[in-house]
Amino acid sequence: MSAPVPEHPIHVSLADLSVQFALGRPLFGKPPMVRAVDGVSLDIPRAAFFGLVGESGSGKTTLGRAILRAAPVTGGSVTYRDAEVEYDVGSLDKAALRDYRRRVQLIFQDPYAALSPRMTVRDIIAEPLEVMGLTTSREETDERVRDIAARCRLNLEHLRRYPHAFSGGQRQRISIARALVARPRFVVADESVAALDVSIQADILNLLKALRDDLRLTILFISHDLSVVAHVCDMVAVMYLGAIVEVGPSRAMFAQPRHPYTAALFSAIPSLDPDERGRGQRLEGEIPSATSVPPGCRFHTRCPFARDRCRTESPEWRQVAPGQHVACHFSEELAARMNRPGRRQT
Ligand code: SF4
In terms of domains, do 213 and 301 share one? Predict the structure, then answer.
């Protein structure tokens, strides 16, 4: 008997990934191109709770959709690996694409809009199994539905009811159960708690963490809310105007961000510590349009530390701590200016 092959430590790799599309149809000339994702390379480790953060318009949702093969990839590649398969996601045939769609699922943002009001909770959760033909009898489907409902802390009596009978938090549990019933390995959770009251958010985040451990899931958690990301994620990538500018273990990054954009985002997190409140670099101005990305460092139009070199030369990636990488010409020099003693730890 041959020895089992160890699982690759990287679950999903993006290599120079780009998603661009034309904006409208002008009467004359070429339409402007939106560079929604612009040459992103990123490794998402197996079983990570991996945060992807940035302002609205940074391209994080498009990046998640590119992994799901729901956005038009115009350059680079997405590679998916688990113990059974390795896929170049851009070149899947029909059968492989069906299999990939089982392995990689999306948890929707809005639990109110995601659930059909005319279906019972049982039918909502069972639908992916039936559409993908993953079970052979009603009994088997019911067993799978009951199993995932229990893991998502839904009562079995809930399965007979309709979505309108539930609160926002319960509806999000139903959405999560539906996303996980096909036993995916990789889940994209796009602003999955943004529509919920703060009191419910922690409950759903703790559920996602428990499910990650229980089912050995990898979760790509897309959020604009840094305090939420600090609460749950092991690793964080920070996205600005279509590109990743910093990536690393979340504890290290929250303790010592090394890119001025990361530092500005993190310093905007409300703090209970009066000494911390209002300190740090504030982010001025709006994110530029993705149709006219500034040359050089794309953050230079808002960076308080920008110099001439930043306006013409795109920064290379550099490692600044174990596992922590940043794209800034002056990250070493700026570290002391951006990170004061006593900065909050997560
Ligand atoms: Fe700021 Fe220059 Fe660093 Fe970009 S490269 S973040 S503009 S200091």
Answer: no
